Amino acid sequence: MSTFTVEDLRGDVRRVRRDRQVRWFVLGAATLSILISVLIVGSLLGEAWTFVSQVEIASLWTDGWFPRRGMYDVRTIFVGSLLVTAVAMLVAVPIGLGSAIYLAEYASSRVRRILKPALEILAGIPSVVLGVFALRFISPDIVQRLISDATQFNVLAAGIGVGILTIPLMASISEDAMSSVPDTLREASYGMGARKITTVVRVVIPGAISGLVAAFIIAISRAIGETMVVLIAAGGTGGALYSLDVTGPGTTMTAAIASQAVGTDQVRGAALTFQSLFFVALLLFIVTLLLNVVANRFVRRVREKY
Known about the structure:
The protein is an all-alpha fold and 306 residues long. It folds into two domains: 6-54; 58-302, MetI-like (MetI-like fold, Orthogonal Bundle). 72% of the residues lie in helices and 2% in strands. The protein contains twelve helices and three strands, in the order ααββααααααααβαα. The chain has a three-stranded antiparallel beta sheet. A hairpin with a 4-residue loop joins β1 (64-66) and β2. α3 packs across α9, α6 (155-179) packs antiparallel against α9 (209-225) and α9 (209-225) runs antiparallel to α12 (273-302).
């Protein structure tokens, strides 16, 4: 009768070595991603601190965002970002959620195999194309026809364009969240005599609420971070006046950065024009970080485990 040793229990040496190599590779990749993030934030902090420490307080509360003239009204680009995001969510949430409900609860498997890839193709359209579409079609044929005093470049058209760009993201994540709800919950609802729409509203959506909230937050982050659609359709390439009117031109944090950094020779003007890019980028990073923190805390609180 043979006896087992400790060496026999350790397994194949080559397999153990390969597993160890894979483990170190994955650890290195994770560490590298964290290091890159830290370096990016560090580079933002340096120039942003230069801007904050040298800028005149009066220039932070002016009539608009014109950094090359020394006017750094942060509320102009911050409010502009909120307006574009709000309009985008008014477009993306009902259409995306409705599409997700149909795909998850009403569509047959054959229809789902056709519609879901077709919907996700929309996510592959370059944002610059949607920007031109918003400028040449949405603005003149929709916005200006409904609102006669709307200008050619306006925040409303830009928000609708960003909303169209966000629909596939909202629909795909929401559909995955609702599809993950166990069928036993649906069957229990049907067994009690509930109709299809009642089951969707009272059972499926509450059961998938954590995923739906995650989809909503990701869609907001996507809308806030969109650049080209706003840069082309909103008309705030050289700066913008502070306004709450969505029928007029405006700009966002991302568009403000892009309009200033179109080639190194364009970052001119006041002494802190270049540093203002990093300040706005840091502000955008903080906003996105807060959104993710709030979303994670909410999702953990309402998450259903099956």
